[in-house]
Amino acid sequence: MKKLSVSILALVFSVAALTAQEKKINTETSNITWKGYKVTGSHEGSLDFKEGSLVFKNDKLSAGEFVVDMTTLTVTDLEGGMKGKLEGHLKSDDFFSTEKNTTSKLVFTVGKATGKNAYAAKGKLTIKGITKPVDFTISVYGSKATASLKVDRTDFDIKYKSGSFIENLGDKAIYDDFDLVVDLQF
């Protein structure tokens, strides 16, 4: 009887493994765009993936994990010296400390479907070694997926010119929230 129970358990795990499929993202064609806001306007740019994958069970998205190379942080709305200056400042300890924190990470699981191709996701986002919960919607279309996240930078100890921590900044204030748009190909 004990051998039969072990055999049935092994069969159940084998079937479960067959129905779960991990799909690696193509780090060359997948991308992240970011947009940060200040009182006088905004700036935007991009980041590259180091690695990542999505897990599907019975052809439905169930989880994912991504590592972002923070040293690839690029500004796309400026050129020349101003571009280099802002990129350097964003990589500095005032913001993302990319020399000390070369990667950021998102690990998530999917709850229920919110539409034909959309899923409610709950995850843990790690920036500068600090991990915080995030909720977002991710949509899958064939071999592509997309998600948008709003992130409060102060949750990750990025307080430079934040009106939440420094008074009387006037038009020098930088808003706490920034947006990430993730486009994945796998």
Automatic annotation (TrEMBL):
All residue ranges annotated as the Lipid/polyisoprenoid-binding YceI-like domain in the record: 22-185
Alphabetical keyword list: Signal
Annotated signal peptide: 1-19
Keyword Cell membrane: no
Keyword Signal: yes
Protein known as: Polyisoprenoid-binding protein YceI
Organism: Cellulophaga fucicola
